[in-house]
Amino acid sequence: MSKPTFPPRSTPDAASAAGSATPADTAATSPAAVRVTLDAMLAALPATRQTATEQPPPAGTASPLHTSTGGVENNGFGTSSLSQHADTGADAESQRLLALHRPLEILQAQPARPTPAAVELDVDLLFVHSGNSNALAQTWVRRVFDGTRLHTAQLQANVAEQILLLRPQIVLIHFEQPLLSLSSQVVEQLRISHPHMPLVAVGHQKDPQATLTALRAGVQDFLDMDASAQAAQETIRNLLQRQPKMVQLAEASCPMTAILSARAGIGTSLLASHLAWYLQTQLHQQSPEQIAHEQSAMRHGPELDAHGGTPMPIGDTAEESLHTLLLDLGTPNGDTAMYLNAQGGLNFADAVRNLRRFDRKMASSGLGQAASGLRMLTLANNASVDGAVSAMAQAPTPSQADADMLLMRLRQYFRHVIADLGPALPNSIAMRAALRANEIWLMCDQSVLGVVSTAELLRQLERQKVDRSRIHLIITQHDSRLELDAQHIAQQLQLPLIAIIAERRLQLMQAVNQGQLLPPKARSEPYVQAVEKLTTTLMNAYHSDSPLKNSTSASAHSGTGLLNKLIHRIRS
Which intervals carry biased composition (Basic and acidic residues) (predicted)? Predict the structure, then answer.
């Protein structure tokens, strides 16, 4: 008796979703081939259901989703029908595979997102691990804290530097054999460089050595990877309520304005010296009430103290002279100190080496000081940036992390920092200071070479992920007789033009040769007008309670009225 044949069913729309059946598919009898076919069908299952409801398959046509494997028919609906005359062994194997795959339909319908408790944690976390070998720990942390802003770093990296860049609120450190000693060293270093940062260990509490090592290192808590996700989330939530956030320290930092250029010799040190002097004068004339109001608004936060130094609250106003700090990190170094006749004091390398006891009192008495009360900090005497880096490399802790920590501490003691970075070099201290500045002022002259070099410097800053909105352009040594005007340069560089400084080399050199700078009272001098305008910009942006705000604004905008224009024309 001959075996009856059954015409295959067809679903045209499902065919387009799953692809056409090949002879290899219909002839395959191995379990692997059946598994591949089933996986493909399960992936196209929702579309198949919809099209099967809307368009019944016409009889007598072959369906790409209809695969026959030793008599097994799959109709594309997650079920199977066996031919009554198929091979019994193949039928049994196919039925078993289909039964195994059938529950996947239910699993795919489950939500993939974590529990709502994880999403409620609005926090920046940094997870420090040992690399690819801790894939399980990384997966656990990502799953438990999926709703947070999670960053990762390796134990072998400069974790202190990563904290300064990423500014997390809590640092998670993995403790697991055989790297317990390395994890412990990282905790000890962070307790020195970031004493207010909450440190939490991640590991298995069933490993007593890991738990004991973490607690001895000084972590605030321990997250057990064998416990529930809700327990870990609740631990972090409670820790956030108990500990001050890192963002408070960031808000406690005073503004920093960085002045740099792509090429040397265009007057960054002269501009920084004038700007810091003018700003110091105006800030010094503020009343104690205005100073207290500004510091309570900008510097409210926990106490910060150096190890071995004098504890000082951030909002302390005992040292009223700590208004403006001039950082000289450019090359050649030390020009600003000569311009301002600043005497003695620590240099940058000395301050880094004394970082453990560098406090507000040392900032007041140990730094170089000009007659106006302006404090100064330069690199090592007669040393380039690379030489200063080599000198700081002899310190017991990483030099870059120490330099970053010193900058952060200085910004907690002063009201404004002006940083003369000169022609900043990649990977130098000057470039690192630029990355942390509130504003970056790029100085460029009217030469084509200067514009091209400035464009390359912009690309370097972009590679360092610097927000372009923080960068402004200053055209210096401007001569209106040149065809390459300031507005055209700003358009080419795609930067907002904040100031145009006229060519006044003769007047500047005459003042410098006499050991002076151009005083603010010389209001008819174009260079002074440009610097006063920049000073007013900083006062309005960061120190709006200045008593000289209105008068300075008026002087900075002198020459806009018809009478003032006539007076300037007569004087010239």
Answer: 296-306
